[in-house]
Amino acid sequence: MPDIRVLIVDDDPLVRSALSHFVARGPEIEVVGQADNGIEAIAFLERQSVDVVMMDVQMPEMNGIQATAAISERWPDVRILAVTTLDGSDTVLPMLSAGASGYLLKDSSAEIILDGVREVHSGASSLSPRIAAMLVNHVRDTAPAHGAAEALEPLTDREAEVLDRLARGMSNLEIAQSLIVSEGTVKAHLGRIMSKWHVRDRVQILVAAAHAGLVDFH
Q: Which of 22, 64, 189, 201 is most buried by its number of CB atoms within 10 A?
């Protein structure tokens, strides 16, 4: 049985075919299905278990943002990787805020696409500093905090330091170097934050923190 079962959701059959070809290069990855839009994706998930959904943003009937929100709520263990032609805040940020764990551009190389699927599956996907800053501002602007901070279990001082660096778009290695600790220690801190806040990866830690007003950019 493959380690990573992938569903590809895109209204362009040529894009689905290309992504399927790229992803299938990973020996531990199997494309178990394809869907035209969000409605078809949800119908597929009701029938078969999937680990990662590669989700287009702009689709008819139910777009990627709507589908991501619905899937994240019903199947919280399924990781969603946004796959888009646009690197703009109007597509990437709503997808991440809705529950996507990462994003890729459709013209990325096969290696980058494979790495993206693996990172999302492992919960290790990271955002560039620019996207991290834009995401925090997007979440805060679209969903002002109303008691959100009180709903989150408080972090230790060290966990707060890790969060601060995560919000700057640092990788685990960069956070470790900044705090002069091992990368394993950083992963352990991130794991405790995920457990405390009931979120599933680095990106959703950032979304939760932004909702609660715990991180900010000026």
A: 64
